[in-house]
Amino acid sequence: xxxxxxxxxxxxxxxxxxxxxxxxxxxxxxxxxxxxxxxxxxxxxxxxxxxxxxxxxxxxxxxxxxxxxxxxxxxxxxxxxxxxxxxxxxxxxxxxxxxxxxxxxxxxxxxxxxxxxxxxxxxxxxxxxxxxxxxxxxxxxxxxxxxxxxxxxxxxxxxxxxxxxxxxxxxxxxxxxxxxxxxxxxxxxxxxxxxxxxxxxxxxxxxxxxxxxxxxxxxxxxxxxxxxxxxxxxxxxxx
Length: 239
Known about the structure:
The chain has helices spanning 8-16, 23-31, 46-53, 73-80, 92-105, 144-155, 178-184, 195-201; strands spanning 63-67, 84-89, 111-115, 128-134, 156-167, 206-212, 228-234. By secondary structure, it is α/β, with parallel strands linked by helices. It has one domain: Rossmann fold (3-Layer(aba) Sandwich), CATH 3.40.50. Helix 4 links the parallel strand 1 (63-67) and strand 2 (84-89). Helix 2 (23-31) crosses helix 5 (92-105) and helix 4 (73-80) packs parallel to helix 5 (92-105). The chain is globular.
């Protein structure tokens, strides 16, 4: 059959096929744990720790959803701070590593890992007080922003917070226009966002703080690289 598109999801799935499959790539990425990759550190993001320490987030206990959790460094930290955490990643290698870290940290009872696409994960709760994304958004092709916004609208509780960390425009990542990425057939390692682009993309939410990630020294208790942009938003109550 040549005429298979009937729904919006059919269109999104067709556009997905214009880019290389992601799951196998990420499994290979996380399989080599000895690789010199700064993202493999167990330290949580400095901005996440700062939000918690400054009281910008609702205090625990609360429910948190970690999108694209990788080896679980931020999910483990949230669980250690008293949150009930669901963490999702496409890579089975990442989820296995994250589970090991959670057990080593003694936070397994408050933390669940899900090996799935963030758009297909079967979550135990309808809404979460915090949705956290460190490096997932900038690896999504442009059309999947539609799915991402729909996911946020569904799972972020009224009055809840959404935080995202992405490649910063002018520092790292591809700044090609969306249309050009489809002709290219790739994301060039990840998409860069400016502060204004994040504010525009999430314009239905209230910005709390948008800033570059603060660089951290090697061996620091927190993770921070200056080519990343961090943003914290709050969903208005009643929406």
